[in-house]
Amino acid sequence: MSQHPSTVTDCLPQLRLFARVMCNDVERADDLVARCLSQAQDHLSEISDAQRVLPAMLNDLAKLIRAQEMGRAPNASLTDRDPLSLICQLPPYHRDVLVTVTVFGLRYWEAAEICNCPIGTIKSRLNRAKAAFATKASEASRPERARIETGAHAAPA
Predict the structure, then answer these.
(1) Nearest to 50 by CA among 7, 3, 107
(2) Proportion of the chain in helix, strand, coil states, percent, rounded to 5
(3) Contact 31, 15 (CB under 8 A)
(4) In whole angstroms, what is the distance from residue 121 CA to residue 28 CA?
(5) End-to-end alpha-carbon separation of the chain, Å?
(6) Measured distance CA(3)–CA(84) in Å, rounded
(7) Secondary structure (3-state) at 105
(8) CA 66, CA 125: separation in Å to the nearest integer?
(9) Is the torsion defined by CA of 45, 47, 48, 51 positive or negative?
(10) Among 51, 75, 87, 112, which residue's beta carbon has the most beta carbons within 10 A?
């Protein structure tokens, strides 16, 4: 993305995508986005730079997601081959950095605020997330091995 959204309304698609990728549950993700929007009313007037609206909203949403993830069991793994499903299969700390930097085009320091870690960690996680995504994409594109059933009387190959 070359340009940051400048209003909360412009941020909605990114917020929904981020929440869906992080939660892997559409209803829960939409509930979290709604909660994020209601909480954001209190402090959005403090943001003077229009380019800071998306990072601020993502930061609030990430905090809500982290708070809700405490004590939850991990989601079941997906078997779909589309990129979004592959991203959902990554650990949360890889998903958040991959989406914020690669999909939304945020700067490292903005992603560091959202992911609640240092910039150096963002760079490291991004490299590992890209490698893990590539591995999952490669595995998903391989055809499953054909099973060869051999009977008790089959000749050795």
Answers:
(1) 7
(2) 65, 0, 35
(3) no
(4) 28
(5) 54
(6) 22
(7) coil
(8) 17
(9) negative
(10) 87
Separation between Cα atoms, residue 51 and residue 53, nearest integer Å:
6
Ordered DSSP codes for 1-56:
--S---SHHHHHHHHHHHHHHHHS-HHHHHHHHHHHHHHHTTTGGG---GGGHHHH
Tokens of 41: 């009313």
Q: What is the pLDDT along the chain (157 residues), one digit of tens a residue?
A: 445 666 778 889 999 999 999 888 889 999 999 999 888 777 766 766 656 788 888 988 998 988 887 655 445 444 566 788 888 889 989 999 999 999 889 999 999 999 999 999 999 999 999 999 999 888 887 765 433 444 445 455 4
pTM: 0.68
Sequence-distant (6+) residues with CB within 8 A of 82 are: none
Overall residue count recorded for the chain in this entry: 157
Residue 40: per-residue pLDDT: 79
CB 112 within 8 A of CB 69: no
Name the residue type at position 103: V
| Cα–Cα dist 102/96, whole Å | 10
